[in-house]
Write a structure and sequence with these properties.
The chain is of the alpha+beta class and 274 residues long. The protein is 18% helix and 26% strand. It folds into 2 domains: 222 residues, Glucose Oxidase, domain 1, CATH 3.50.30.50; 37 residues, no CATH class. The protein has 6 helices and 13 strands. Helix 3 crosses helix 4. The radius of gyration is 21 Å and the shape is globular.
Amino acid sequence: MSAEQSRVDEVELFGRRLELYDLSDTLSNSTSEHEPNPHQIEYMDHLATLPIAAQLFGLEAQHFRNGLSWAYERVELTTHSGTHVDAPWHYAPDAPGGKRAMTIDEIPLSWFVGRGVVLDFHELDPQLGATDADVQRALAEAGHELRSGDVVLIRTDASEHFSEPGYEHYGCGLRRSATEWLVDNGVRLIGIDAYTLDRPVPVMAEEAKEGAHDQFWESHYLGAEKPYCHIERLAGLAGLPSATGFYVVALPFRIEAASAGWARVVAIYDKGAV
């Protein structure tokens, strides 16, 4: 089974046949060395864990089936490694009205489930980024009428470079006007198949050095004024059968007081009654 084939599955639920598309990237040691947020996976097989399990339960090797224990992994990573959902606390400590910004464990579950639409920006210039006009044009091209609670996914195809050093240079991110227009129209979750929802970090950093400070992390910082969440490091958007007509489920791991949580993001197409 190829990597792309493994992204598609089917299930029968509530009398409906649902087609599932996995939109999550795979966390792998093969990319650890060039990750801006490094991670490391230590694999412990059934034999390596035997002394640990034996000591834990006061047993010996013969007490275990075939003299083998269980397999598990130790993972060192940040909450922003792999596919993850950023909470408002990531953007800034404060929220409107003098309140503390919400952490990932405080976000309502309803923010992470909704009708999905893919906006195709893979041919836009990363230097310029996508504006509110680009968002409205892409919605029209997708034939999608935006409603409050919709989940908007941004296709840049930067995910094709995740296995390469410097992948953070790829992808057309959103300018503040684009993100603000979506949030003002009831969107609480935006996803992107790139390192960041904003334009590439090297682009923003160079402009900041030249004095253009307001543009640095402009879409992130909007979340301090108008709280919303976004998903970073999606994958497989180009493989979806249509740009609309599906639902998104993007439930983040519940981590106390955290700025983000890892997520397995799925696009769900209703294929009709069983």
